[in-house]
Amino acid sequence: MAKGSFHAAAKPLQVxxxxxxxxxxxxxxxxxHGTKCLIIEGEQRIRGDIRINGAKNAAVAILxxxxxxxxxxxxxxxPNITDIHKLVDIIAALGAKVNSPLKGQLCVDAxxxxxxxxxxNLVNQLRASYYLMGSLLGRFGQVEVPMPGGCDLGxxxxxxxxxxxxALGAKVxxxxxxxxxxxxxxxxxxxYLDVVSVGATINIMLAAVxxxxxxxxxxxxxxxxxxxxxxxxxxxGCQVVGAGTDVIKINGVKSLGxxxxxxxxxxxxxxxxxxxxxxxxxxxxxCDVIPKHLDPLSAKLKxxxxxxxxxxxxxxxxxxxxxxPSDVKTFPYPGFPTDLQPPVMVLLTRAQGxxxxxxxxxxxxxxxxxxxKKMGAQIKVEGRTAVIEGGHKLFGAPVKxxxxxxxxxxxxxxxxxxxxxxxxxxxxxxxxxxxxxxxFKKLSVSIERSLV
Length: 452
Ligand code: UD1
Description:
The protein has helices at about 25, 55-65, 80-95, 120-125, 130-140, 160-165, 200-210, 225-235, 265-280, 295-305, 340-350, 370-375, 405-415, 425-430, 435-440, and strands spanning about 20, 35-40, 45-50, 70-75, 95-100, 105-110, 140-145, 170-175, 180, 190, 215-220, 240, 245-250, 260, 285, 305-310, 315-320, 325-330, 355-360, 380, 385-390, 400, 420-425, 445-450.
């Protein structure tokens, strides 16, 4: 990235306030505001079936991508989570008309968007705001976005995003924490990513779809959410080929049309409930999923002795009392997902023997360990490896979620432990799981929100 120059003050934000309308997706946020903690009674078993919501990590790319077209956009199966609420606020502040006629549906008309500097106070609150770089650069050839926020999982550089934008012909500067990107003309380029990055792959796609000529992204990430975003882009007239492989080719097009799209199911939400069923010796049918996306988890659950049955669009999990230890190594897709590492760690505390988890994707994604130890877990961390001595009872305790998936792991730990767990930091969970209390209620366990 270009070195920060501190001689000029950042320009005032060019924001047009249109506001967002609609009862369905946009209003439910009130129901979760103000609650401070979750109270989880221990020794509960998951039982029942649940339909999985749309994928957060696809939705948070698709909404910024909707700014690329001046024609109407309709997106279905969006999860009702605070990351989406914040993105809606951001794109509405930029001048897009957004409404939500049906539950899980958003209609976006970005024809009147003329700002390329989204409001800093909102952008700071979520990681996925980095997708505004690619989409606004693609639409206007210019964007000014503060460095993104999101879960603290250790250093989360955006050098590969910047490398891609620069290769496409943009000039990038960092001024007072604001990334300023400008291109007289975006031209297709051959880009080899040094690290496999979901964010960089999608962001470069967004910037390249309207560039002149052909862009090739090599060593691209292959996550299903990248494929879903590419399908959305292609449905609006882009020419993206190869998403889901490590070489993505994009032929730039001049103009884009209208689009209707349904977001794929959230494999991480599904995986969380699958692990919860396995960890609590419960039984759950996870419906409306793409089982292939969950292969790495299904294989691991079977390996430790959980019964997993796979149908065309559902997965049945039956937890067993006896659980074998295992080694888990996180990797980019189709490897074991880093987002399911905290929940699977809780599962392995139940195994009879020593398990090992190696976190290969994020440097500091073991922040849940100290809190799990408060609940009686026997875990040692050395560098990127955690050693879990299984078979020790967990006890309910006051614990604090430090990030989204760590938070989900504490709910599972609370359900299987003895006594009551009081979980704070639940704003992290609400960022990525739709109405977590109701969802667990559907699976016959009771968790309560509390104001104290
Ligand atoms: C996305 C997901 C997150 C998931 C992660 C890995 C979203 C909104 N978030 O995060 O839930 O845990 O993928 O599957 O989709 N890196 C660099 N330079 C860069 C970009 C990344 O060094 O420019 C490194 C990161 O520090 C990390 C690794 O690459 O070590 C993977 O990061 P990346 O795939 O980019 O994750 P995110 O897009 O941030």
